[in-house]
Amino acid sequence: MSARRAGYxxxxxxxxxxxxxxxxxxxxPAFAAWRPAEPRRAAAGELVRVLxxxxxxxxxxxxxxxxxxxxxxxxxxxxxxxxxxxxxxxAGCRLRGAVRSRVQFAADGPARGAVPLVVCGADSARIVxxxxxxxxxxxxxP
Length: 142
Prior knowledge:
The protein is an alpha+beta fold. The protein has one domain: minor pseudopilin epsh fold. It has two helices and nine strands. It has helices spanning 10-34, 37-61, and strands at residues 65-70, 75-79, 85-86, 93-96, 100-105, 111-113, 117-120, 123-129, 136-141. The protein starts with 9 loop residues before the first helix and ends with a strand.
């Protein structure tokens, strides 16, 4: 009988390395396409956070609430006049739309109003409010 050693041959290791290299080469374009959208997603997420906070205040308080968004200053406040809070947008991102946008949330959930467009360089995103529930969702625009 021959004593057999446990381990891998050089050929087996080379085959595994080639497979990993091919998988990595195939994954790079997917990550490259995903990366530019990241600041746009972060900026849209910040605006969604502010909208959801206002919606929750209206539903929990049982009274209508209005969010005023200052697109130029990237600030917002809830009416009746609440402490203004700054929205932290990634570098190179801004809000585009009316100087002052207003979004009203009813105590039972529905929303109406204009939400500014999120613009990051050449990329943009739109926040759409569900008319019945008031829930915001993000649409990435080409």
